[in-house]
Amino acid sequence: MSNPAYLIAPSILSANFARLGEEVDNVIKAGADIVHFDVMDNHYVPNLTIGPLVCEALRKHGVTAPIDVHLMVKPVDRIIPDFAKAGATYITFHPEASEHIDRTIGLIREAGCKPGLVFNPATPLDVLEWTLEKLDMVLLMSVNPGFGGQKFIPHVLEKARKVRQMIDARGLDIRIEIDGGVGPANIREVAQAGVDTFVAGSAVFGAGKETDPHRYDSVIAAMRAELAKA
Ligand code: DX5
Ligand code: ZN
């Protein structure tokens, strides 16, 4: 594997939105690496979440960790500069949500962010043939996008192995991220398939009691312990 540093990216979709800044502080304190920020538009996916104002609010609150903006919106391009200004680090989008994939990747790069493409469980990887060199991340959905707390779809592991082969064959330094149904019980086999960046929403924010400020430490430690065995 060319990129052995494993990163854990809690999805704030499952956080308490009424106390979002505090929630993000707590997962980072508990050992998370990246903030996964799910943007849903009630058009590309059947749910509605958060936008650039919330990203900016987290930066103003003092969040310095990378923010991994996962755009589940259609169209994509208009909102990119807003997220760049709001402090996004990665911006990933679904190729079927953009009319001009290469242009959208370029817009993200020009705005100073790291571009990534997201593939739904049934979406083929074809577009990677002509885009891979321009990406910093390939995000593989292991559930259908729109909601947290769904069941991991196992055929995505095969896809991960394929992407890992493509990246390694071309000698590129690109993260492979997985999103959906990931937790301590399956993170090790996901890593063994070549994934290095792990989104976990309900597994992290659903852990323990909200009154316990250390509730995220043990679940993140459990995931790290599994990764150490991968
Ligand atoms: C689903 C989102 C995910 C979601 C994952 O559309 O992209 O990031 O929060 O949630 P869990 O980890 O609960 O499956
Ligand atoms: Zn996501």
What this model shows, in words?
The chain is an alpha/beta fold and 230 residues long. It has one domain (7-228): TIM Barrel (Alpha-Beta Barrel), CATH 3.20.20.70. 32% of the residues lie in helices and 17% in strands. The protein is built from eight helices and eight strands, in the order E-H-E-H-E-H-E-H-E-E-H-E-H-E-H-H. It has helices at residues 20-29, 52-61, 80-85, 101-110, 156-169, 187-192, 202-205, 215-228; strands spanning 7-10, 35-40, 67-72, 90-93, 114-119, 137-141, 175-179, 197-200. The protein has an eight-stranded parallel beta sheet with strand order 1-8-7-6-5-4-3-2. The longest helix is centred in the C-terminal third of the chain and has 14 residues, at 156-169. The N and C termini lie close together (12 Å). The mean pLDDT is 96. Zinc ion is lined by residues 11, 36, 38, 70, 179, 199.
Q: What does the largest sheet look like? A: 8 strands, parallel
- Cofactors and ligands: D-xylitol-5-phosphate, zinc ion
* Residues in helices, as a percent range: 25-40%
- Amino-to-carboxy terminus distance: 12 Å
Largest sheet strand order: 1-8-7-6-5-4-3-2
As for the CATH topology, it is TIM Barrel
The tally of structural domains comes to: 1
